[in-house]
Amino acid sequence: xxxxxxxxxxxxxxxxxxxxxxxxxxxxxxxxxxxxxxxxxxxxxxxxxxxxxxxxxxxxxxxxxxxxxxxxxxxxxxxxxxxxxxxxxxxxxxxxxxxxxxxxxxxxxxxxxxxxxxxxxxxxxxxxxxxxxxxxxxxxxxxxxxxxxxxxxxxxxxxxxxxxxxxxxxxxxxxxxxxxxxxxxxxxxxxxxxxxxxxxxxxxxxxxxxxx
Length: 212
Fold this sequence. Notes:
single chain, alpha+beta, 8-stranded antiparallel beta barrel, 18% helix, 33% strand, globular
């Protein structure tokens, strides 16, 4: 993508997401959610920059904020050890279907993917979270996938209950990512950053309730 087109699209996204966030007085997408506490336990041979065991904050949310059991793009946001935000949305698992958000009705039957990959050591890596069958799920298996669509387990996510009362963190994978991982492709990462920047600017000051 040319730099001129890149810049123009970035400006459009920044303005659009800023306006939507201002209208909602919340995030432009995934405006309402529940904040939970838990733990991430990495597989010993994951080959990825996960700590062996770390506390996490997890936010479950609906993309458009549809009421009740209506289908929506379900979101799973994970803050690992207070420093790395990993954002996943309900999606497919195939080489093409994992690139698109997929609406779902139930948290326990959806699969949650990063949609776009990370670049790690010269290779592309997607992440996918598979929940247990309980509703709502309290355990997820985190998988890493290749461009060919092969998945392998790299960590377990265990939720322990609601997070302590306090200000809800603003999850942002553009500002918080671990050393050695870059969002790819670069032009998509720049557009994504423009959208997140617009949403941040359009939001009112953070509220202290946990169910925004």
